[in-house]
Amino acid sequence: MLIIPLERLIKRSFNHLKGKAGSIFIEASLVLPLTCIILITMITMAMSFYRNIYDQVQNHKEEMMNESHRLQMEAVRIYEKIF
């Protein structure tokens, strides 16, 4: 007697899942690619920002090696120590 209601319950639950399976696939087909695009965009932006900072540091190092800038920087450092 217990087997028949259990079989009906299983059939009902599978029928209920069949109706919602399509909406789950549609949601996954929209959310997953959008999430991937957002992550790729964020990684690309971080790499771009890092590259810009790296270029600025390299330019700054080159300017520091220039003799005329070295004297100016020493004057600025002395001025900053005073104030």
Give a brief outline of the structure.
This protein has 83 residues and is mostly helical.
Detailed description of the structure:
With about 80 residues, the chain is an all-alpha fold. It is about 95% helix and about 0% strand. The chain contains two helices and no strands. The protein has helices at about 5-65, 65-80. It is rod-shaped and about 90 Å long. The mean pLDDT is about 80.
Mean pLDDT: 78
State the total count of DSSP E strands. 0
Q: Helical percent range?
A: over 70%
Cα(first) to Cα(last) distance is 92 Å
Uncertain ranges:
none
Radius of gyration, in Å, reads 32 Å
What class would the helix/strand composition place it in?
mainly alpha
* DSSP summary: helix tally: 2
Largest sheet: none
Percentage beta strand: under 5%
Order of helices and strands: HH
Jot down its keywords.
83 residues
Task: Give the SSE layout.
Elements: H1 3-65, H2 67-82
